[in-house]
Amino acid sequence: MTTTAKHASRRVRRVRPDPTPGRSPRHAIPFLLPGLLLLGALVVYPLLYSLVRSFFDRSGDEFVGLGNYVDLFTDQRTLTAFKNNVIWVVVAPAAVTGLGLVLAVLTERIRWATAFRLVLFMPMAISLFASGIIFRLVYEEDPDQGIVNAVAVGVHDVFASASQYPGARPRESAPITATADGFATTASSYRPGDVLAIPMVGFAPQEVPGNAAGVMSPAPEAGELRGVVWLDVSAGGLAARTDAGERGLPGITVEAVADGKVVAHTTTGADGVFTFPDLADRDYVVRLSPEDFALPFRGLTWLGPSLITPVIISSWIWIMTGFAITFIAAGLSAIPRDTLEAARVDGATEWQVFKKVTVPLLTPVLLVVFVTLVINVLKIFELVFVIAPGSVQEEANVLALQMWQVSFGSGGDQGAGSALAVVLFLLVAPAMLFNIRRFRREQT
């Protein structure tokens, strides 16, 4: 081949187009453009608008600078929301990740592992709003509606017997009144030979024990302090008087107290009569034990101000555990079985295999799950809005809910709401960037 032909061949090779299509970024622009437009309209524009709006007042006409941010960090409700968000971030993601790890490892070898994980993942199939309605009913205070209190009452009643006359109380004109310590105590003192009449109300006549007999005021007896306790609800009878048709209240514990100490105690008979024989000739105060009149245990006020945040967190843990199990189980399936078997052959126990081999190999997966849950927690809104009653919503408040209330609720201040949105974005952004960097690092 001549020199001229060789040069011509080289020139042809230099101008030959790249045979691999799609390498040029220009080819990707038509495919990326719709997504970029949606991203700009739904993410970039609202973000920039919120940032600008946060520097203006409620009406949006007057520039206030950092005034909204100063008010944000001095408002008590916002500080409560910050505190609750810190509790959420510290407790909820770690609990879900740990619980998901344990359940994923325990269910790895069982026969119905897939079905078990499917059941745990099912709460993720419905919205948090619908889940909130369900858990609002689960934690209802009335045991007839709330399953948690129904279980608590059932367990309590197995180990603790109910009182005989729940809700019963002395009539207002009775010589005995309830005190701060729960006892019903006489205001005056009595001595042997006296007779004390204690009419009771606030109890249904049909609930009186079947062995109760008709009431009759006992006659005084020297050296004995006597009395009668009866249900004073006879129609047409006189108040604080033993009338025909009224029955005594048997089995009530009565105590004789002197100088602040119980010196004798007895119980009422079938006719409600009680007797203290062989008492020293001195003054005594008579009192009834509160155990006989205590209201039945009706469970705990789960949706009250002291328990509302733990209750909502527990609901979120139940919902999100399936998410953690799914991701961690996928990571477990990717662990080389030879590594685990080698550790067992070397004499490692199952706990040592879990601690020294499984967890270190799962660390990247666990980190991704944890960070994703942190992002989810910082944006939590629906569960708090639905589960927390209006009277305690302030105690359960979080930043996302506070942002909505300030912007669109009773506040109606979109300047302050935009400032909250910017702060919430700044809190979420580091976790998002961390996840993005990890994904890119794994792809390289």
From TrEMBL:
Task: Spell out where the chain crosses the membrane.
Answer: 31-52, 86-106, 118-139, 316-336, 357-378, 416-436
Q: List the PROSITE patterns hit by this protein, alphabetically.
A: ABC_TM1
Which Gene3D superfamilies does this entry report, sorted A to Z? Immunoglobulins, MetI-like
Region called Disordered, residue ranges: 1-23
* Ranges for domain ABC transmembrane type-1: 82-435
> Topology versus the membrane, per the UniProt entry?
Multi-pass membrane protein
Keywords from the named record: Cell membrane, Membrane, Secreted, Signal, Transmembrane, Transmembrane helix, Transport
Q: Where in the cell is it found?
A: Cell membrane; Secreted
Would I find Signal among this entry's keywords? yes
Q: Which family does it belong to?
A: Belongs to the binding-protein-dependent transport system permease family.
In Swiss-Prot or TrEMBL terms, this protein is called ABC transporter permease subunit
Highest lineage ranks of the organism?
Bacteria, Bacillati, Actinomycetota, Actinomycetes, Pseudonocardiales
